[in-house]
Amino acid sequence: MSQELSPELAAAMERIGKHQAEYIASGGTRGHVFGFDWGGGRPFTTCMLLRTTGRKSGEPRISALIYGNWKGEVVIVGSKGGFAKHPAWYLNIKEGGDVAIQIATQAWKATWREPQGAERAAVWQYMEDCFPPYKDYQAATDREIPIIMLTPTEEIPVFKD
Fold first, then answer.
1. Which of 147, 46, 150, 134 has its CA nearest to residue 98?
2. Domains of the chain by range and CATH?
3. Which of 39-48, 60-69, 115-124, 126-135 bottoms out in mean pLDDT, i.e. has the lowest?
4. What is the pLDDT of residues 128-157, one digit of tens each?
5. Which of 21, 36, 95 is nearest to 66 (CA)?
C-alpha cells in the first residue's frame, strides 16, 4: 500500500471525519452504526469513540473506531489502513494516559491490555470477521497491527468537542 494520500484515501478520511463529528455532536444518538461497504467492509459496522491524552500535546484526543465485543471486553484494532506507522491513539495509550470510551450514548473510563499468543490470534480472526479489510491492511504493512482490549470501569458523561 502506498504511504501517500491517494484521492480515494482522502475521500475516505473525509467521510470518516464527518462520521466522527456527527457521533460526537449527537451525543452518540447517531454514529454508533456506520456503513463501511464503500471500503470493503460491512454496511452495518459498530463504531465507538476512544478518548486518549495526546502524548505530546497533553490535550484530549478523540478517535472513532470500529470495535468488537470479545468475552465482555471491547476490542479495537490499530490498523491505520495498513500504513507503516501505528495510529496516534495507540501511541497515546502506550504512553500511559487516561483512556475513555463511548459506545452509542454511554461512556466510561477504561483499562486496557494487549492480548498475546493464541488469544491474540483468536481475537485477530474475530476482528477480521467483523471487518474483512483488516486482512488486507495487515498484508500491506511490515508492522504487527496492534489489538487493544478495553474494560469499561466508571461511567462518565458522553464526550463533547
1. 150
2. 7-156 (2.30.110.10)
3. 39-48
4. 999 999 999 999 999 999 999 999 999 999
5. 36
Bigger pLDDT: 26 vs 35? 26
Q: Compute the distance between CA of residue 76 and CA of residue 127 in angstroms, rounded to an integer.
A: 8
pLDDT at 2: 44
Contacting residues for 15 by C-beta, under 8 A, at least 6 apart? 38
Give the mean model confidence (pLDDT) for residues 23-29.
97
pTM of the model as a whole: 0.92
> How far is C-alpha 109 from the geometric centre of its chain's CA atoms?
16
Q: What would the 3-class secondary structure string for the chain be?
A: CCCCCCHHHHHHHHHHHHHHHHHHHCCCCCCCEECCHHHCCCCCEEEEEEEEECCCCCCEEEEEEECEEECCEEEEECCHHHCCCCCHHHHHHHHCCCCEEEECCEEEEEEEECCCHHHHHHHHHHHHHHCCHHHHHHHCCCCCCCEEEEEEEEEECCCCC
Total Cβ atoms within 10 A of residue 134: 23
Comparing CA positions, the residue from 147, 129, 145, 149 lying closest to residue 137 is: 145
Q: What is the Cα–Cα distance from 52 to 100, expressed in whole angstroms?
A: 7
